[in-house]
Design a protein that fits this description.
Layout (H helix, E strand, L loop, with lengths): L1 H13 L12 H35 L1 E6 L2 E6 L3 H9 L3 H30 L6 H14 L3 H6 L1 H8 L7 H15 L5 H12 L1 H6 L2 H12 L3 H9 L4 H29 L5 H12 L3 H26 L8
Antiparallel strand pairs: 1-2
Helix pairs in contact: 2-15, 3-15, 4-11, 4-13, 5-11, 8-9, 11-13, 13-15, 14-15
């Protein structure tokens, strides 16, 4: 009986001491903390400047706002504003459908063009910095006062500058249509291409931010991946589909969400213009709040569906 007891004591004496747990953060938690720190200004701005107007808009949508001495007075109306919006207003539903349809046709064009332009700007050539600045220039030119100046009415009325004749552009569109018809492609696809050519200026002007995001993603791809692929005899086309495209797929999701929101909240959007007219033209803040709330929910639903679909195709490199 003494032998096993002595053996147990010996084992306890030579037992390896347990390692103390580290109290520091691991790499994953550090990255998470840096991510939260990065979005902290946005969260502060969201709570401070967005949540209060959002709650007030919801309250206004169920009331009629009347300007009173020293402020305003809310008269409860229930869902009357929503009933007027869908049943009495003949323009809102149509404008909402047109905005969503325009988004469906416009977002793929912007993403394809911005990704193609980013790949070109990622190549090494003389004047690359100048070329990148030129592609981002439309973002600056189509903001604020420059957006108003760019409209043809102000140029023609204030300075007598007439807009360029569109006959030459229409002739080129007809020639392009004839060329595409000879390929025996679908007429819907040909119409889509022709409409894209007609809106090339709008597409370029709305692609500046997306080009920068894609360009940053392309530059972050480890060169060792391409070196190993080239040693194995892969072609440039295979490198693109096996390395480049999967590595930037998370940025495709980011740019898709950004482009959807940017397209649907553009100042030239018919729904945005109608909400502004109802609020500040007809002074019907209750109806305009209901329109804005429904439009916000529609955008939120579209973004949620797109994120759910596209996120399944995203590849994350670790």
């Amino acid at each position: 009986m003494k032998a096993p007891a002595m053996a147990n004591k010996t084992l306890k004496a030579v037992a390896v001491p347990k390692k103390k747990k580290r109290n520091g953060l691991n790499l994953t938690r550090k990255r998470a903390m840096m991510g939260y720190l990065f979005i902290l200004p946005f969260i502060i701005g969201l709570v401070t400047f967005f949540m209060v107007p959002m709650v007030k808009s919801v309250v206004f949508s169920f009331n009629r706002l009347e300007v009173a001495e020293g402020g305003y007075e809310l008269i409860p109306m229930g869902i009357e504003n929503y009933r007027r919006m869908f049943l009495s207003d003949v323009n809102y539903v149509r404008n909402l459908g047109e905005a969503l349809l325009y988004m469906v046709t416009n977002v793929p064009l912007i993403l394809i063009f911005s990704f193609f332009a980013a790949n070109l700007l990622n190549q090494k050539f003389r004047g690359r910095s100048l070329a990148r600045a030129i592609f981002f220039l439309p973002v600056i030119l189509t903001s604020g006062v420059m957006l108003v100046i760019d409209s043809g009415d102000l140029l023609q009325s204030s300075y007598g500058i007439a807009q360029p004749d569109t006959q030459e552009g229409a002739f080129r569109a007809v020639e392009l249509a004839r060329l595409l018809l000879q390929t025996r492609l679908s007429t819907r696809f040909i119409d889509y291409i022709i409409s894209a050519v007609d809106r090339i200026y709008d597409i370029v002007s709305m692609s500046g931010v997306q080009i920068l995001v894609f360009l940053a993603g392309l530059q972050s791809i480890p060169p060792s991946l391409f070196e190993a692929s080239n040693i194995e005899g892969a072609t440039g086309w295979e490198n693109f589909w096996k390395i480049t495209f999967p590595m930037v797929s998370p940025l495709i999701l980011v740019n898709t969400v950004y482009t959807i929101i940017d397209t649907l909240t553009n100042s030239t959007n018919a729904v945005m213009d109608q909400i502004d007219t109802v609020a500040f033209g007809r002074m019907d803040f209750g109806l305009s709040s209901a329109m804005a709330l429904v439009y916000f929910l529609a955008i939120f639903a579209v973004v949620g569906i797109v994120v759910w679909i596209v996120s399944k195709l995203v590849f994350y490199y670790e």
